[in-house]
Every structure is written in C-alpha cells, then in structure tokens.
C-alpha cells in the first residue's frame, strides 16, 4: 500500500476489475446480447446494487477505461501552477503514464472491448462516451492548475492532445506484442513532442 | 461552379443536405424513435434506394459530418510533399477551413444532432463513429503527402490534432452567437499554435 493509494481505493479497483472480467467472460461465452446485469452480478459475486455503484449499464461494464489517477497525484499536478502550455501537456501525460505503469490495462480486455464495440453500437457509444468523459475530467484537472475554466480552449485542447497520445499508444499496444502498454504510449509521446517542436 | 467542384458534386451535396434536413425535421416533429427511413425518404422526395446511397441508417442521416474536401484540393495538399510535421498539420487545418468557408455547417443542424446524441445512444455512436471515420480519412491524406503509412504514428497524431482543433471550434460555434463557424475554428487554431510553439 503506497501513501498515494489507500486500502479503500485498492478494493474499489479490485471490485471494478472483477465485475468487468465477469462481463467480458459472459459476453464471450453467451454472446453480449444475451447477457444481463443480473447474470454479470451473480458471476462476479456482487449484488446488482453494487454493480450499479460501479457501472450504469452492461455496456459500460465491458469498457476498459482508465480511472483518473489518485487524488493526491492530481492535487500535486494542480499545485505546480501555471506553466508553458506545452509543459503542462507533457506533465499531464507523465501523470497518466505513472498511473498506467502502476495499473497496466490488460491487452485481452482491450481487445474484447474493441471487438464488442464493432458489433454493438451501444457498446461503441459507451466506449466513445467514456473517452469523452475522461477527456473532460482531464480538462478540469488542467484548468485547476492553470487557473482557467475547464471549458476554455487551452485546457480542452491540452486534454484532447493528451488523449490523442494515450489512445494512439493504446491502439498500438492492443495490436502489438509487448505485454507492457507503457512503452507504446511513450513512443506516441515522442512523436507528439516532435509535433510540438520539443 | 468553381473549377474544383463540378455540377455532380454540387448535386450530391444538395441531396445530402435535403435528406438530412428531412430527417431532423421529422425527428423534431414526431420524436426520433418513431421516424423510419421510409418516412425520411418520402419527406425528402427520394427513393429509399437513394437514401441508402447517402446514409447507412436513420441514425447516420441526422449526423452533420463534414464531407472530405474536393479531390482536387486533397491532391494539391498531397503534392506539396513532406515538410515539418507542424507545417503539415497547419496546412491540413487550412485545407479543412477553406472547405468549411465554402460550405459552412448550419448551427441549427449541429444543435439538433448533439441533442439527439444525448438522448439516443445509437445516434451518439453514429456521431462519434463519424468523427473517427473522418479522422481516419485525414490520416490517409497526410500519409499520401508525407510518404508514410496511414497507420503510422505521425499521420494519426496529425489527424487527431486537426480534429481536436476543428471539434473545439465547432463546439464553441454550436453554443455561440456568430452565424459563421470559421472564426470559431480559427480561434481554436490560434490556441493550438501556442501549444505547438509557433
């Protein structure tokens, strides 16, 4: 247990992962259309009430979305204060990479999610809406650091660019061979730095 | 009729727009769930066969997605050849802005699309999948210019960043007051230039 992540947070991540694995396993076995929230809850050994504390729908349960980094890390990022926008972007990506190194996503789960998204518009909608929501949270985080509003252009663009690097890296990871996602994202960040001229 | 856009292309844009307007009008009057492809086709005065030449579904018909710029402009962009990646990005955005100035999207249609997307996951999925598809075409265009492959990192990142600027501008246009979308995108591009350090 690190200082930046308490026991409760670890349990939350664990339950989140167990429900997701149950949902993906059932979707693989029976076909996603036949799977219900009740079946997923029973398979994961939780009540449907607990299920809905974690996910709004069965579609959401098959989406492997990175949670935001721990509050302490986000607070430290914000406390660093205004800086050159390019530096804020690179700091934000570094924050996300540190969290990814601690909790690497699993290639199989990402693969299954993308495959379900291609077959089921509701899964695709949940997936892309998840990316949008994550990106909005990133804009809030940037704005907390720079003293801007989350809907101002610079925080939104910094959040978009960070997401573009993360997504490019994750897509390469999903179709790649190395089991560690971090180097894939690092390579995308190197490309982004070339674009930023730094 | 300009040299870069023939009569056939103008007719295509016109029919596209008429079907879309019919779909949005019917969705507003009767509720999207009750609208069928047959109803939209009748309202627009086209056969369902023509409908399906333009849109794969009723969800797709309410999505106001920019078409790619005319082939001649894309060819000229590609013929300019390899350049500094930041310059390729700014050239790509300039290409899209020229097309937007010629065929400005209508605020009402964008508003209606975003509202339908919030209510109907299938519309949201079609909308976000439309953005993804457009972005993929941009990566192909960039790769044709730089001699890379469309799935290489740089073309994908350049396409993502161009989309980020366009989407930020369009979101501000949709909630803004000026009837011309171009200045909204130009402001987002100015912010992006700051991030790129140029």
Give the gist of this structure.
Chain A has 198 residues and is mostly helical. Chain A has two domains: 1-61, Arc Repressor Mutant, subunit A (Orthogonal Bundle), CATH 1.10.10.60; 63-196, Tetracycline Repressor, domain 2, CATH 1.10.357. Chain A has ten helices and no strands.
Written overview of the protein:
Chains A, B: Keywords: DNA-binding, Transcription, Transcription regulation. Two copies of one chain form a homodimer. In chain A, 74% of the residues lie in helices and 0% in strands. By secondary structure, chain A is mostly helical. Chain A has two domains: 1-61, Homeodomain-like (Arc Repressor Mutant, subunit A, Orthogonal Bundle); 63-196, Orthogonal Bundle (Tetracycline Repressor, domain 2). In chain A, helix 1 crosses helix 2 (37-44), helix 5 (71-79) crosses helix 8 (121-146) and helix 9 crosses helix 10 (182-196). Chain A starts with 6 loop residues before the first helix and ends with a helix. The A-B interface holds A 59, 85-86, 89, 121-122, 124-126, 128-129, 132, 153-154, 156-158, 160-161, 164-165, 167-168, 172, 187-188, 191-192, 194-198 and B 59, 85-86, 89, 121-122, 124-126, 128-129, 132, 153-154, 156-158, 160-161, 164-165, 167-168, 172, 187-188, 191-192, 194-198.
List keywords for this structure.
198 residues, mainly alpha, Arc Repressor Mutant, subunit A, homodimer, transcription cis-regulatory region binding (chains A, B), Tetracycline Repressor, domain 2, globular
């Amino acid at each position: 247990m690190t200082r930046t992540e308490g026991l409760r947070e670890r349990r939350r991540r664990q339950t989140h992962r167990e429900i997701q694995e149950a949902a993906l396993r059932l979707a693989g076995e029976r076909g996603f259309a036949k799977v219900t929230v009740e079946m997923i809850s029973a398979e994961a050994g939780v009540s449907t009430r607990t299920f809905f504390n974690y996910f709004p729908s069965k579609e959401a349960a098959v989406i492997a979305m990175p949670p935001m980094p721990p509050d302490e890390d986000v607070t430290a990022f914000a406390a660093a204060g205004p800086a050159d926008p390019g530096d804020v972007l690179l700091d934000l990506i570094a924050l996300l990479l540190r969290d990814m190194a601690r909790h690497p996503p699993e290639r199989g789960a990402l693969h299954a999610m993308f495959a379900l998204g291609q077959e089921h518009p509701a899964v695709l909608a949940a997936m892309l809406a998840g990316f949008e929501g994550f990106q909005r949270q990133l804009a809030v985080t940037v704005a907390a650091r720079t003293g801007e509003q989350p809907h101002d252009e610079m925080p939104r663009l910094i959040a978009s660019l960070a997401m573009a690097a993360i997504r490019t890296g994750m897509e390469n990871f999903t179709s790649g061979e190395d089991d560690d996602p971090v180097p894939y994202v690092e390579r995308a960040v190197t490309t982004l730095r070339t674009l930023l001229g730094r």
